[in-house]
Design brief:
By secondary structure, the chain is an alpha/beta fold. The protein contains seven helices and eleven strands. It is elongated, with a radius of gyration of 20 Å.
């Protein structure tokens, strides 16, 4: 894994909205334009919260069916050590691999507080969450496929392995950005360059917007501005 970014670099990325960040990444042609982001199925539960940036802590969960033996699945705590071993801040990325994803929720009131204490700023899952007011009060952003009232039989199958959630393939420790538009991965090799590129793109867009709102607007000026862009 690449060395973690400085707090200043992380903050510069966090200040970017997701659309401008995606535009900046596209200019480097390091991946196809239909890769590296969620496809829109997940709900951003708190669109008014600011963007989040963090390193992915990956887990796989399952919970729609009971165990074959009597009782419940064992509560695992070893994954907390894994999360704490990653650079902070973290974003939990939980792939529900059950035949009925999201029937029950692993993450709720207690887990939200635990993850916050471990340095987590957000959760991304194709499964379900619950205790929504707790997460909002903690400022913990959530992107989820469902909301559920129950645990059902949800338990952790494995952690630290690659996952795929809503079309986004994520490796442990990968840098992610999320806001009301969705979640995307940030190529670590570009992370330091992206804020400056994003600022340039934003300035170019603003010039076109200003022209469109100007009494001097004309199609000729618009075409010239777009061509220059």
């Amino acid at each position: 894994m690449s060395p973690p970014l400085t707090p200043e670099q992380l903050e510069a990325l966090r200040l970017l909205d997701g659309c401008t960040l995606a535009n900046a990444i596209e200019t480097f042609n390091v991946r196809l334009r239909n890769e590296g982001f969620t496809d829109g199925t997940l709900r951003c539960l708190f669109p008014s919260l600011p963007p989040i940036v963090g390193y992915a802590a990956t887990i796989k969960i399952r919970g729609s069916a009971p165990p074959t033996a009597a009782g419940l699945y064992a509560q695992r705590t070893d994954w907390w050590t894994y999360v704490q071993s990653l650079p902070a801040p973290n974003i939990i990325v939980a792939q529900d691999i059950a035949s009925h994803p999201g029937l029950g929720a692993l993450l709720g009131q207690v887990h939200f507080n635990i993850q916050r204490a471990l340095g987590c700023v957000g959760i991304v899952t194709n499964g379900a969450v619950r205790s929504i007011p707790t997460a909002e009060a903690l400022g913990l952003q959530i992107f989820a496929g469902k909301v559920s009232v129950s645990h059902a039989y949800t338990h952790i199958v494995e952690f630290g392995t690659p996952v795929e959630v809503d079309g986004l393939k994520v490796h442990s420790g990968e840098l992610l950005h999320g806001d009301q538009h969705g979640v995307q991965s940030i190529p670590m090799g570009l992370a330091g360059q992206l804020p400056a590129v994003a600022a340039r793109i934003a300035a170019e867009k603003q010039a076109i917007i200003a022209l469109c709102q100007s009494p001097e607007f004309s199609l000729e000026k618009l075409r010239a501005a777009v061509t220059n862009d």
